[in-house]
Amino acid sequence: MSAATPVPDLRATLPLVPWPSAVEALDAPVAGLAVVRLDAPDDELRELAAELLVAAGAQVDPAATVSVALSLDADAGPAGSASPERYTLRVTSDGVVATAPERVGLLHAVRTLRQLLGGTGGPDAVPAVVVRDAPRYRWRGLSLDVVRHFFGPADLRAVVDLVAAFKLRVLHLHLTDDQGWRIELPSRPELTEKASQTQVGGGPGGYLTGAEFRDLQRYAAARFVTVVPEIDLPGHVNAATHTYGDLNPDGRPTDVYEGIEVGFSRLWLDLPATEPFLRDVLGDLARLTDGPYVHVGGDEVHTMDADEYARFVERAGSIVRDAGKTPVMWQEAARGTLAPGTLAPGTLLQYWDPKADREPFVDAARAGARFIMSAADHAYLDMKYTPEHPLGLDWAGCVELRDAYEWEPEEVIPGLPADSVEGVSAAVWTETLTTRDELFSMLLPRLPAVAEVAWTAPASKDWAAFRARVAGQAPAWRDAGWEFHPTPQVDWP
To answer: Could you tell me which of 345, 348, 350, 437 has the C-alpha nearest to residue 390?
Structure first.
């Protein structure tokens, strides 16, 4: 007969992040999983699962007597859950059985198993448990700026691995801004020829070729991560206006920009060159994008009146929808509701600025918009940990680990219906980040905290327990070569 251990005890002792929907400790011997046989529905899933288990110290051997069996089962997961990502994981001394209605759930189960393998007992002493799990939100992601400083394909694959490790599903890439243009587009090759070799403070810059972008998407999709590309419009466009003078009223290209100020650049909707430019770059990007979303920015346009801005939002969203994609925009696009019907139902708005007027957001939700919560005072992971931290900015205040963990997405916009929240995304901007180690030190350990906000039911969250569980992740990060900030808020091993 199995006996359930109280959940609060397990939350502090099992090194699982994000914390699952339901965990039951079995009154059974620990499992020896140092050498296992791996059974999976297909070769690709088997290879990905094997990679995760080997990284946790296990050996995969077809002749092993102990098995890790992955199988599709529509009845898996917590009772009442309809999430396609739900799964059940059963670990006993007889072996491991993971079931899920879809392949993504099976890989989630293996990620949970990997964390159990990496726990205090190691692969030879894995606790006997049953995990029934499903996410709170569908959209769980990270927004990454590759413009202020460029991060190339190898770095981006490492970020995909990090995102996937904590069951996040979206990597949103901010690909264009004042400082550079980072995506090769067939109809406008001049953008990368003239505007890709600059970045904040100088340096070589760089860009993703179309082939590299497609390869990155395939790598991410195999790990159930969707890449969402962003061309930021109608502000943050100095790289474009530097390339094409006809995007400016005076017909003259703007100068290269390598600073970090915002809000000074813009497009002019009624110039003859503007709409062809929009149709070319957004159409090309949509054709390069395998996933269903294209982000068109819309933030920090400080020199455009409300009417032109609303018309611009409508035009950009319409072009994206005509190309077969769902538009995503920063929160400012909620102003498009000032012109009735310009913000189409189903548009995704990414909330970021806690100082903004909230009333337009509630109006946009009533018009059918849905919100991705990236509250800067909790989820902007380029904010300094403390005032003394050598990296990052502090315009939204400092964001320590506890700040990234203790917030409620459905309460950050008073009056917003809870069912208008599509999900949660962390964000990291790279004005001060130049290397992979610097980037990862800002993401870790705070990205796992945001991942738990996005996955775990509020009633199951606990800061003291999270501190212990995130500390248990450190050995795996060291093994993977992932730099992290050893915040004093955690007792690190």
So the answer is: 437
**133: helix, coil or strand?**
strand
CA separation for the pair 93, 167 (Å, rounded): 26
User: Phi/psi of residue 349, each to 5°?
Assistant: -115, 130
- Residue numbers annotated as active site: 300
| pLDDT (tens digit per residue) in 333-373 | 997 544 444 567 788 999 999 989 888 899 899 889 999 99
List Cβ neighbours of 194 (8 Å cut-off, separation of 6 or more): 242, 243
CA distance 371 to 7: 31
Q: What tens digit of pLDDT does each residue of 418-442 get?
A: 999 999 999 999 999 999 999 999 9
Sheet containing strand 67-72, strands side by side = 22-25, 129-133, 87-92, 95-100, 67-72, 35-39, 59-60
CA atoms 393, 397, 401, 404: torsion sign: negative
Partners of residue 250 on adjacent β-strands: none
φ, ψ dihedrals at 426, nearest 5°: -75, 165
Count CB-CB contacts under 10 A for residue 292.
11
Q: Which two tokens stand for residue 374?
A: 């990236």
Tell me phi and psi for residue 5, to 5 degrees. Answer: -85, 140
| Among candidate residues 400, 378, 374, 375, the one with its CA nearest the CA of residue 387 | 400
Dist CA 347 CA 345 (whole Å): 6
DSSP 8-state assignment for residue 79: T
How many Cβ atoms are within 10 Å of 208's Cβ, its own excluded?
A: 25
Cα–Cα distance, 91 to 24 (Å, whole number): 10
Helix (H) or strand (E) holding 473: none
Superfamily of domain 139-480 in CATH is: Glycosidases (3.20.20.80)
Task: Kindly calculate the radius of gyration of the chain based on its CA atoms and give it in whole angstroms.
Answer: 23
Tell me how far apart the alpha carbons of residues 275 and 229 are, in angstroms, rounded to a whole number. Answer: 20
Contact 444, 478 (CB under 8 A): no
pLDDT digits over 182-227, tens only? 999 999 999 999 999 999 999 899 999 999 999 999 999 999 999 9
CB distance 302 to 264 below 8 Å: yes
Phi, psi for residue 100 in degrees, rounded to 5: -165, 155
Domain boundaries, the chain: 7-133, 139-480
Q: How far apart are the first and last CA of the chain?
A: 35
Q: Give the CATH fold of the 7-133 domain.
A: Chitobiase; domain 2 (3.30.379)
In degrees, to the nearest 5, what angle opens at C-alpha 170 toward C-alphas 166 and 172?
125
348 neighbors 293 (Cβ within 8 angstroms): yes
